[in-house]
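Reproducibility note. Readers wishing to regenerate the assembly model reported in the main text can use the exact inputs given here. Chain order matters: entities are listed in the order in which they were concatenated for prediction.
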Amino acid sequence: MEKKQGVGITITQHILNQQRGNPDATGAFTTLLNELIVAAKVISREVNKAGLVDILGSTGRINVQNERVQKLDVFANQIIIERMQHIGQLCCMVSEENADLIEIPSRFPKGNYVLLFDPLDGSSNIDVNVSIGTIFSIYRRKTSGSDNEVPLSEVLQPGKNQVAAGYFLYGSSTMMVYTTGNGAGVHGFTLYPSLGEFLLSHELIKIPEKAKTYSVNEGNYHYWDDKTKALVDFFKARDKETGRPYTSRYVGSLVADFHRNLLKGGIFLYPSDNKDPKKPTGKLRLMVEANPLALVVKEAGGYASDGHGPILEIEPTELHQRTPLFIGSKKDVELAEAVMKGQTRL
Ligand code: AHM
Ligand code: MG
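Running the prediction on these inputs yields the following structure tokens for the assembly.
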């Protein structure tokens, strides 16, 4: 069997190698990522045994070992906060599960990085043994202030300022995919359970420029505007020359849908709809879901848009703001954007 290039490189080695190329690196960032990886290994272990032990169920129940039972998303959130708060590299954190900024307790040292995360994305799939994931995004705070309370303005930065982003996918195997931006590319690592190590399995991932797969919750069709309907109708229409109809693939876990399209090519969309007046701009969150995946896809040669312009250029005004998301193969997303902007009629 042909040996894949790079097999045997651990994620730690890889991060260190990347940091060596950066003369300003202090090791702070390496420490940060390493600790996040430990948290993800713990989450992966719990996700894997979710069907075996009574960890699922409502928060607060007592299981057979007389332990307090937690929902997996609550558990994942706690693990990340507990592991990351003491390392001395963060000034604060943002989680999809917490309404406000998560401060670093005063007993721990602080640093200049901000960690944003969605601890367990794909909540509707947690209880049914379908792939879910953890998404992360890392920024440097705008000033190197040492104040205890970090103002929100330090955190509300456009996605293009991210210094690293990626995700862990808890699927048939557990993977980590990450980028440090600036042309460093996207790299994938697979967790070898017997070693407890993430080993390089997908070096320099490139997403196909154009594909034949679309991923969307089409049950929302009648809540969409005419442009969105026209776009999805276009994907489904028969036309040999342009390779249509496209194939539809939708897991309902953003990380899983994104990951498949990253490797095989495709467009994922979660557009605006009029289903819920409280969420007029769609369901997904800009800072913990769209931005990190937008940086990953860009580094892999793809594109992410909100239907008007690049996701990475959006200046956020709120921690939990939502955004329409069109992400994946560059040509397909560019077409979607042109349609949404009214520049192209299908
Ligand atoms: P969550 O953060 O509550 O898990 O919601 C985000 C998830 C994404 O993983 C996925 O792409 C989307 O919601 C699916 O939504 P829907 O069930 O409306 O198709
Ligand atoms: Mg989510």
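We highlight two features of this model. Residues 96, 118, 121-124, 217, 252-254, 270, 283 surround AHM (ligand 1) (CB under 6 Å). Confidence is low (pLDDT under 50) at residues 62-68.
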